[in-house]
Specification:
Largest sheet: 4 strands, antiparallel
Shape: elongated
Low-confidence stretches: 135-154
Number of domains: 2
Length: 196
Amino acid sequence: MIQNKLLFNQSSVSLEIIGLPDYSNNENKDQISIISQWKLTIVDKPLIEGKIEHLGPIMNAFYIYSNLLIKNEVPIYESKLIDIKADNLYIHNIVLKSSKPNVKPLNIKIGNTSLSDTINCFDQLNESSKVSIKKSVESNYIPKKVRFVLNNKVKFFDFIMPPFIAIFSLILFSSSFIYFYNPLKDKEKNELINPE
């Protein structure tokens, strides 16, 4: 049986998903619900590939790590399969650990552009209507809308301060006109213009 292949590209990174549709659910022949293999290619870096059980944790790692960067928290992610930490502001060190025995970990250093491109490819995969990964990926997988967003927790102080400052400024600005406006002068002007 011929397997389907889908390619998601973003500048320096491409993600290939290989698999079959689930005919028991009457899926289209172009769908991929049973992922047999995936390949992540980053320009000038070794090929990263694996099975479906590796895809979820690796995507999780990239999403969690990038969210830590955005929130200015310590950017370190460690797990049995992948470790990611920042060497500096521009270089990110990725250690991929094989699930096979006697295989040395793969060390890759990528820049901010490659990190962003990788996240973009994962986003494309997540948004694709042709690939279903929900059944296969771990239950702690990060939902679509969590990626690359700032902290959703709105602090009360941050919420109330902008309107408070705006109202205070409006009152201050309006009250300054009281000092410049003299109703008696306006009455005198009207009498001069419209004498009775």
